[in-house]
């Protein structure tokens, strides 16, 4: 699991090395005027939120920072991705997920590994959107599996030929 997550984070780093800061932070019509950087920020913050709540065992994804510097400065995003890659490998433990819906705060029991899988899946969803935004640039090379779920990659390999 950790190897898959780190590979996923490295694919984001690889893409960052190909994007100018202007391409990273520019609004994109295909992304409903969001930028590639906004999707990076979201990915970075959901993983970061999980790591920040790990010791206490309480995570609230709604309370993430929404740090606009991450979405406008690709160097900061790169630093955050490197930090995540270094910190992500931790032992499994029980974690409570706190979320407010319709004015009511809920606590749901989960664990670190389950939340990592959720974050990986969520990240891949945002990477698929990033792939749409990157399509307008001719100079970008993406791995064909960028933004594709591991189960889909496995299915394709099993049915190739």
Automatic annotation (TrEMBL):
This is DinB family protein. It comes from the Bacteria. It comes from Fodinibius salsisoli.
């Amino acid at each position: 699991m950790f190897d898959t997550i780190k590979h996923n984070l490295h694919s984001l780093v690889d893409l960052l090395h190909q994007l100018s800061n202007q391409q990273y932070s520019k609004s994109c019509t295909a992304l409903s005027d969001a930028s590639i950087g906004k999707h990076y920020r979201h990915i970075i913050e959901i993983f970061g939120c999980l790591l920040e709540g790990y010791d206490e065992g309480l995570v609230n994804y709604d309370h993430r920072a929404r740090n606009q510097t991450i979405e406008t400065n690709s160097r900061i995003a790169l630093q955050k991705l490197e930090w995540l890659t270094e910190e992500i490998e931790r032992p499994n433990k029980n974690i409570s997920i706190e979320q407010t819906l319709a004015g009511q705060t809920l606590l749901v029991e989960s664990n670190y590994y389950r939340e990592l899988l959720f974050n990986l899946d969520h990240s891949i969803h945002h990477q698929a959107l990033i792939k749409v935004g990157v399509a307008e640039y001719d100079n970008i090379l993406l791995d064909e599996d960028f933004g594709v779920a591991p189960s889909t990659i496995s299915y394709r390999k099993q049915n190739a030929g």
